[in-house]
Amino acid sequence: MKALLKLFWVEFKLYLRQPQAAFFALLFPLLLLIMFGSIYGNTPSPFFGGRGMVDVSTPAYIAIIMGSTGFLSISIIVSAYRERGILRRFRATPLRPAAIIGAQVGVNFVMTLAGTLILVAGARLIYDMRFGGAVGAVLLGFTLSTLSFFAVGFVVASVSRTARVAQMLGMLLYFPNIFLSGATVPKEIFPPAMRSISRVLPMTHVVNLMQGLWIGEPWSKHAVEVAVLAGLLVVGAIVSAKTFRWE
Amino acid sequence: MNAAITVNALRKTYGRLTAVDGVGFEVRSGEIFGMVGPNGAGKTTTIECLEGMRSPDSGDIRILGLDPRRDGYELRQRIGVQLQQSSLPDDLKVWEALDLFASYYRKPAPWAPLIGELGIADKREARFAKLSGGQKQRLFIALALVNDPELVFLDELTTGLDPHARRAMWNLVRAVRERGKTVFLTTHYMEEAEQLCDRVLIIDQGRIVALDTPEKLVRGLQAETRIIFTAEPGYDPAPLRAVAGVTRVDTAGGKVTVSGGGDRLVILVVNALDAQGARFRDLRTEQPSLDDVFMAMTRDEMEPAGSRGAAGPAGGAR
After folding, report:
1. pLDDT in tens, B28-72
2. What Rg do the C-alpha atoms of chain A give, in angstroms?
């Protein structure tokens, strides 16, 4: 336990010492919001079901943060640790594998949450973002979504021989997901063909779930999203546990 | 005296390659035990099996009475390991690494004196990526000692260090042993093995070819002493062949090499030179060393495997 906490704290500091990862998780979504917000404002519009652009974008951008920590940070860090022999060095100590995984999950979860809070605070302060949901439900949906993306990140780390490959695979997940899921560009403007592509992307389900919980829709309306994300989490966790390699 | 390490009939193959082929030996508690051998001889595979980093195909290993495969966690609490290839995160500071690794163990040792002894105390705040090769090496040694282990594995501990740092490392290893610990090390430097180790195991092509104290290994080689000097032009070395103990005299340019054995060889040769009235300079003698033992007993890496002659432990001298 002492080792896990220490490792978590060290990984936390290491995360903040890498400016690019911290930027994409903590600041990029807020900058995106300010960019689009300065163009469209947050005036309610029938196009967004009587809400403003910022109201619907804020929960959607949270999915972008999860993509950056799950698809990119976790996969790149874990595969780099393996490639460079850092996992090998850890393995020669009594440190348990669960602590290594736990520390990564913990740090990236905290960063995802911090990026979300920064985003929400900005949306609230600058655009007076409206929120009609229950905080507990949103946090639950947030946790499920985040962990399922982390599971994908660990699978990417397992199948990647090097950090470079992990980065490439991570980007191949990250960019289509953020652009085609409705996370950056509202799905409302998508032509039908793009909507069907959108449906197979995991981030689409995160966006739907977060946007729904954000306005207080019941869980029953999002059984599909919950099933997909829970499935992704379970399968991802099993696959990454089976394929985990120290070197 | 009880054994810190007992190995029996250890075997490990990778596909068709047999890396370790029936190795068995014992390391006594409190000794500095060295393993040497050419590249690819099976050193790292052996040490990694002992550390529990690798599973052997067959054979029996006991480390501090534990089975590395079954009691891996308990074993890693009690041993220290310095790996040949490993790394730390670039942005991790020296003190953070030590503090982190110390937290992995039930009974960590205070690490501040450790980095003092290793000469990296002033690097406490430095990030891993900013350390020189030698400083990284010393940090890894410190990490191997951070749990005050009963047994330390050091895989090529001085590779990449300058002569000063190497000697400092030797002193540190001796100090570790003074505290009653056992040290198992591998090295490429025969001088290091000779200086540091109580006993040396020579491994080649996955098999043990010799295991003894450095002195006995050198003596067992029965290699000849060589006397080398530069003579004046026109000097006739023929009379030296008659000197007792001399087996061979070679001349190349003005340089004469007299080979032979016997306690009085040097005196007899110099007396013979004096009696001849010969004028010579730059006279020096070469004693056989562990290097000669190594060269005689192991395959030349530059030659294809298996072309080695019958240079067994006894008939080393050619």
Report:
1. 999 999 999 988 889 999 999 999 999 999 999 999 999 999 999
2. 18
Angle at A5 between CA A139 and CA B110, to 5 degrees: 170
Q: Which fold has domain B3-217?
A: Rossmann fold (3.40.50)
Cα separation values, A172 from A106, A168, A183, B193, Å: 24, 6, 16, 52
* Cβ contacts of A29 within 8 Å, gap of 6 or more: A61, A62, A64, A65, A115, A118, A119
Partner-chain residue, chosen from B89, B99, B104, that has the shortest CB–CB distance to A95? B104
Cα of first residue to Cα of last residue in chain B, in angstroms, is 38
Residue of A nearest to B102 (CA): A3
Is A14 part of the contact surface with chain B (CB cutoff 8 Å)? yes
Q: Domain residue spans in chain B?
A: 3-217, 224-286
ipTM score here?
A: 0.89
Which residue has tokens 């005196």?
B267
What is this structure's pTM? 0.85
Distance in angstroms (rounded) separating the CA atoms of residues B240 and B229: 13
B224-286: same fold as B3-217?
Answer: no
In the CATH hierarchy, which top-level class contains the domain B224-286? alpha beta
Location of structure tokens 């023929």: B238
Kindly report, residue by residue over B233-285, the tens digit of the pLDDT: 888 888 888 888 898 898 888 889 999 888 888 899 999 988 888 888 889 98
Task: Give CA–CA dist A108/A147, Å, rounded.
Answer: 10
Contact B89 A13 (CB under 8 A): no
Helix axes A202-214, A163-180, angle to 10 degrees: 50
Q: Chain B, 3-62: which have a CB under 8 Å from a chain A CB?
A: 51, 53
Q: Do A93 and B91 touch (CB under 8 A)?
A: no
Q: How many C-beta atoms surround the C-beta of residue B178 within 10 A?
A: 9
Q: Residue A72 sits in which domain range?
A: 2-243
Question: Residue A189 and residue A128: Cα distance in Å, rounded?
Answer: 24
Q: Determine the Cα–Cα distance for residues A147 and A149; give it in Å rounded to an integer.
A: 5
The token duo for B121 is 């105390």
Note whether A3 contacts B104, CB cutoff 8 Å.
yes
A88 contacts B53? CB cut-off 8 A: yes
SS3 B254: coil
User: CB distance from B92 to chain A under 8 Å?
Assistant: yes
